[in-house]
Amino acid sequence: MDFGLLLGMGKKKAGQVGDQVTAALVNFDPETATEAQIDMMSNGLTGLLEEVAKARAEYQREQKEADEIKALYNQRLAAAEKLGNMLADESLSAAKRKSIEASLQTFLQQIEDMMPDVEREESEAVDAKALLNDLEGQAKGMAEDLKNARKLLVDAQRDIKKAGAEKERNQRAQERAEVAAGIKEKAGGINIALDAMRTKASETRVEADAAKMKTDLLKPTNLEEDDPNIAAAMAEVTGATESASLSVQDRLAALKKKK
User: How far apart are alpha carbons 249 and 40 in whole angstroms?
Assistant: First the structure.
């Protein structure tokens, strides 16, 4: 079983869960989420800067050791050259020459033996410097990211508040539109009722006018009442004169006939 793969999958899953928690926190409390994200990045930068400080101290130590052993190497090499130059003096006695040659032989062996140490110390110093440069670059990048993230997160928080305010304004506008629509609808109902009432009143007025016209037509005019000739003619036409000219006996006999 590949435990490394399982561990990687577990870390990825944990990261996804963390992202989901962060998103939920942003929806619930954007301000707290913003500060939490910035704090996380700030803590990460603090940890990285601590590593930078350790790497710098390690580089300084390695460089100091490399410089010291290199200086010692150069000093020994210079001393060996001095001994070599002494051998060039033809005035040296045989004993002195032999002594210097023995010393130089021993000294050169010592210098040759220390060369791997010099190379190792210089290599370690170079590696320490490379690590320091890498960590410093990461720290600089993270510091820039933190600076930008703070601005981006604050801008995002501002956008969330702006969107919320805009949503509230739109909701209030919608509510006002709905209220206005309701009032307009009610006003429309009132207008319909008023129109119906006006129509009814108009119809009633027309009926009243017709009744009055009929009454006026059927009612005798002042001319028919005031002019004796016209009144007599109307009475004769309507039979009023016939009843008035009959005697009481004639009228009673007429009633009996109708019986």
Answer: 135
DSSP three-state, residue 221: coil
**Cα-based torsion angle of the residue sequence 59, 65, 70, 73 in order, rounded to the nearest 10 degrees:** -160
Same domain, 131 and 253: no
DSSP three-state, residue 247: coil
DSSP code for 43: H
55/132 same-domain check:
yes
Range of the domain at 125: 10-189
Residues 41 and 87 in one domain: yes
Same domain for 106 and 40? yes
Q: Does residue 129 belong to any structural domain of this protein?
A: yes
Residues 51, 94 within the same domain: yes
- Each residue's pLDDT tens digit, 216-256: 656 655 555 666 666 666 666 665 555 555 566 766 676 66
- Write the CB contacts of 9 (distance below 8 Å, at least 6 apart in sequence): none
pTM attached to this predicted model: 0.49
Q: Is the dihedral of CA 183, 184, 188, 190 positive or negative?
A: positive
* 88-132: pLDDT as tens digits: 898 989 999 999 999 999 999 999 999 999 999 999 999 999 999
Split into its structural domains, the chain has a count of: 2
What b-and-e string marks burial along 147-173, b requiring 16 or more CB atoms within 10 Å of the CB? eebbeebeebbeebeeeeeeeeeeeee
